[in-house]
Amino acid sequence: MLVLDYLFYFIREYRVLTCLGLLLLWMLVLVTTSNRPPGKTGKARRAVRWLFPVLMLVVFFFGRSLSRAYVLQFGQEGSGEVVSFEPTLVSLNKRRVLAYRTVLQLRNGGTCLTSFDDQSAAVYGAQEPFWYPTPVPQVGEKFAVRYLPRLPENFIIMANDQRSSFGQRIRCLACEPALYKYRQARQAYLVAPANTDSRAQLLAALDEVLTCTCLTLAERQDYRRIRRQVAAGQPVAVAY
Questions:
Q1: 69 and 86: one domain?
Q2: Which of 64, 100, 212, 222 has the highest Cβ tally under 10 A?
Q3: How confident is the model at residue 234 (pLDDT cuts 50, 70, 90)?
């Protein structure tokens, strides 16, 4: 199991290097088997030749997903906190990639000092398509993790654990699409309050906003008041 722990960690952190290593092994196999006469092992050699390209494709496109699934299956629960960050030498889409130094609190009472960056961080439960880059914990923000007991450096940030401050922030981010729809529908209703389609769209948007669990009590009361006014055809004040 320790070998698998390191294997999946290496695939997650060094996916391109893993593919290059498989490419070199593939070329070595092609050179060493090309001059051998065909025999009973001919089919086996052909299968081995095709094995490496398949492995390269799997590692490149699904390596991080497989590593994440492995940690989710065999990992343990813990917590972490970001203590500092610094820019790296890598830029992506005209944006400098940031590296975050993190202290993990392990189940056995120990700690592990490790790091992640905001491009390759394994974040589970925050894969909304409009989030780019994937949100990661900030300095001083606590978050839940799942880590491998024999290799804590291979861990996953659990964004769907709302017991942590990071999980609560992600929960609020999940309300952004509903709030965006509400703002668009509200603007259309303010322009033409007598339009039945605008009123129906605003009511539907308000119903979706009211399902958000991140609203404060005052915000929820305001949205309910606005919904009653819209349903009655009354003018509403611009809010939020």
A1: no
A2: 100
A3: confident
Output DSSP code: residue 132: S
Total domain count for the chain?
Answer: 3
Same domain as 162, residue 102: yes
| Among 47, 73, 99, residue at a domain's last position | 73
Q: Which residue range is the domain that position 44 belongs to?
A: 2-73
Q: Model confidence over 24-79: pLDDT tens digits?
A: 888 887 777 766 655 555 666 677 778 888 888 888 888 888 998 999 999 999 99
Question: In the listed set 17, 50, 73, which residue is the last one of a domain according to the structure?
Answer: 73
**Tens-digit pLDDT profile for residues 138-183:** 899 999 999 999 999 999 999 888 788 888 888 777 788 888 899 8
Query: Which of 67, 62, 59 is CA-nearest to residue 147?
Result: 67
DSSP label at residue 76: E
Q: Find tokens 């024999």 and name the residue.
A: 150
The tokens describing 60, both together, are 């490149």
What's the pTM value of the predicted model, to 2 decimals? Answer: 0.71
Residue 180 CB contacts under 8 Å (≥ 6 apart), including other chains: none
Q: Which amino acid is at 47?
A: A
Q: Are 79 and 52 within 8 A, CB to CB?
A: no
Residue 165 near residue 114, CB atoms below 8 Å: no
